């Protein structure tokens, strides 16, 4: 009886050992949940870390109590190599959508660009841009859309970085606020710390406008046909009556 109990115990131990070895090989391992992004507590609303290079980090945060359409932002620059820390703050209108890191003028100084969604019907997007040189932040004025660029614009912007340039894309709407299915794409650069902008695709809105403003076809009502000149009838030659001489 004791032998049976000992043998049964050895079988159980062997089974447990094999199961442990199987787990070591990666079989039947429990799924480890991915770490959750820590939730922000009030008054903070947004946070994103931009790692420009080793030891050069930019934490972008926004905060504010009591309001959701306005607040403030801060860019916390950490230069861990030089043990230098710089804070850049400003008033925020709208809600931060995304933050981008660029070097559009290729001078080795990073630009931190904050995209915030505004609520004003005349300006759907607010952009806050700074260039950092030796720890110093210089504010860059982001250009407004021109009258031609705003034609058909009703927000819904999409910003992204492509080949070192900041790209902006938005759908076009007609006069009745209906989407046309077309998009306009703008490319932003930087020269002498001033933004440059150019359109990189065909402006279909201008094409349709040109068609609508084309001159109307000539009609008989607006431009009556020219009258053809009538040739005056040739004058009739009167017959000359010859008088008979008396000697005939």
> How many alpha or pi helices?
3
Mean pLDDT: 78
Known CATH architecture of the domain at 44-212: Beta Barrel
Return residue spans where pLDDT drops below 50 for at least 5 consecutive residues. 1-26, 205-225, 241-248
How many β-strand stretches? 12
CATH topology of the domain at 44-212: Lipocalin
**What is the helix content?**
10-25%
CATH class of the domain at 44-212: Mainly Beta
* Sequence of strands across the biggest β-sheet: 1-2-3-4
Sketch the topology as an H/E string, one letter per element: HEEEEEEEEHEEEEH
Quote the beta fraction: 35-45%
Structural class: mainly beta
- What is the distance, rounded to the nearest whole angstrom, between the alpha carbons of the first and last residues? 186 Å
CATH homologous group name of the domain at 44-212? Periplasmic lysozyme inhibitor of I-type lysozyme
Describe the overall structure.
The structure is a single chain. This protein has a domain at 44-212: Periplasmic lysozyme inhibitor of I-type lysozyme (Lipocalin, Beta Barrel). It has 3 helices and 12 strands. It has helices at residues 2-24, 147-150, 204-212; strands at 44-53, 56-63, 70-79, 84-93, 95-102, 111-120, 123-133, 136-140, 158-162, 165-173, 179-191, 194-199. The strands form 3 sheets. Strands 1-2-3-4 form a 4-stranded antiparallel beta sheet, with no helix packed on it. A 4-stranded antiparallel beta sheet has the order 5-6-7-8, with no helix packed on it. Strand 9 (158-162) and strand 10 (165-173) form a beta hairpin. 13% of the residues are buried.
């Amino acid at each position: 009886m004791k032998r049976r109990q000992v043998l049964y115990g050895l079988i159980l131990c062997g089974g447990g050992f094999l199961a442990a070895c199987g787990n070591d090989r990666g079989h039947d391992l429990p799924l480890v949940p991915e770490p959750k992004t820590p939730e922000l507590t009030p008054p903070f609303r947004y946070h994103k870390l931009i790692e420009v290079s080793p030891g050069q980090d930019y934490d972008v945060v926004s905060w504010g109590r009591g309001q959701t359409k306005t607040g403030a932002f801060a860019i916390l620059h950490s230069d861990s190599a030089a043990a230098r820390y710089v804070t850049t703050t400003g008033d925020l209108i709208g809600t931060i959508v995304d933050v981008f890191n660029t070097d559009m003028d290729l001078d080795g100084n990073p630009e931190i660009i904050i995209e915030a969604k505004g609520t004003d019907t005349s300006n759907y997007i607010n952009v806050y841009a700074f260039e950092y040189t030796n720890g110093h932040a210089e504010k860059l004025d982001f250009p407004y859309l021109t009258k031609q660029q705003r034609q058909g614009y009703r927000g819904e912007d999409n910003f992204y970085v492509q080949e070192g340039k900041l790209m902006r894309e938005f759908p076009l709407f007609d006069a009745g606020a209906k989407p046309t299915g077309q998009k306009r794409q703008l490319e932003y650069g930087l020269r002498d710390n001033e933004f440059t902008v150019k359109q990189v695709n065909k402006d279909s809105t201008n094409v349709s406008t040109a068609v609508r403003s084309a001159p109307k076809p000539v009609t008989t009502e607006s431009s009556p046909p020219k009258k053809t000149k009538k040739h005056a009838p040739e004058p009739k030659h009167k017959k000359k009556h010859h008088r008979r001489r008396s000697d005939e």
